[in-house]
Amino acid sequence: MTLRIAVLASGRGSNLEALIDAMRTGHLPIEIVLVASDRADAIALRIAEAEGIATLALDPRGYADRASFDTDLFARIAAAAPDLLVLAGFMRILDPAVLAPWAGRAINIHPSLLPKYRGLRTHERAIAAGDATHGASVHFVTAELDGGPVVAQVKIPIESGDTSATLATRLLPHEHRLLVACVGLMAAKRLALEGDAIVFDGRPLAAPLKFRDGRFDADA
Ligand code: GRF
């Protein structure tokens, strides 16, 4: 069965592109039914348009407050009837009330080894802390910013001389593969969220899955 996906993105859209590639090449049984953004100039929207995917740009400045923007955005998302919502570089905090119905059906890709470095400037903060490794996480979305249960992580070494730019560039292709693989797990119905606990292949997941060399570690 094909998983219907809506993607929320504010910018460059390289994670969206990775999903589109995987869809077009038959590596993911998905249909992207909507790409929505809070920025009309988001490159992600141009990528979707070029692929003939439905898009939506809503400007938060046209709304009285966060709650009314989020309510309208999520009503329009619901109208597209996605099975899964993927946040891929969506740079806004979302109202807990609109997220509640999406528990277990919304994931986010975040460029850090959560719970380290929620929020912004993750690469810079990892280098400043003297960390030996950095990485990316895919987590279920909850009301807490970058705080939902973590499904899977990919790790890369921080090299001497790394700047936040070089580290971000090196991490990005790993992020893409991690996100595609996690969406694949959702499409295969191998993941579920029960309360705060992730269930993977019918068993509670004690720790995030480790993603290495393009696959999930068997022992994870
Ligand atoms: C990625 O680093 C993602 O992890 C973070 O925002 C960035 C989005 O990049 N949440 P892109 O728009 O997918 O290229």
Structure description:
The protein has 220 residues and is an alpha/beta fold. The protein is 31% helix and 26% strand. It has helices spanning 14-24, 43-50, 66-79, 96-99, 122-128, 164-187; strands at 3-8, 30-37, 55-57, 84-87, 106-110, 133-140, 150-157, 191-194, 197-200, 203-204, 209-212, 215-216. The strands form two sheets. It has a nine-stranded mixed sheet with strand order 3-2-1-4-5-6-7-11-12, covered by helices on one side. Helix 4 (96-99) links the parallel strand 4 (84-87) and strand 5 (106-110). Helix 5 packs across helix 6. The model has no long low-confidence stretch (mean pLDDT 97). 5-O-phosphono-beta-D-ribofuranosylamine binds at residues 9, 11-15, 88-89, 109-111, 136, 175.
| Low-confidence blocks of residues | none
Q: What is the count of DSSP helices, taking H or I runs of 4+ residues?
A: 6
Biggest sheet architecture: 9 strands, mixed
Spatially, the strands of the biggest sheet line up as 3-2-1-4-5-6-7-11-12
Mean pLDDT: 97
Give the strand content: 25-35%
Helix content: 25-40%
Structural class: alpha/beta
Bound molecules: 5-O-phosphono-beta-D-ribofuranosylamine
Q: What are the secondary-structure elements, in order, as H or E?
A: EHEHEHEHEHEEHEEEEE
**How many strand elements?**
12
**CA radius of gyration:** 17 Å
Give the end-to-end Cα distance, rounded to a whole number of Å.
Answer: 27 Å
* Morphology call: globular
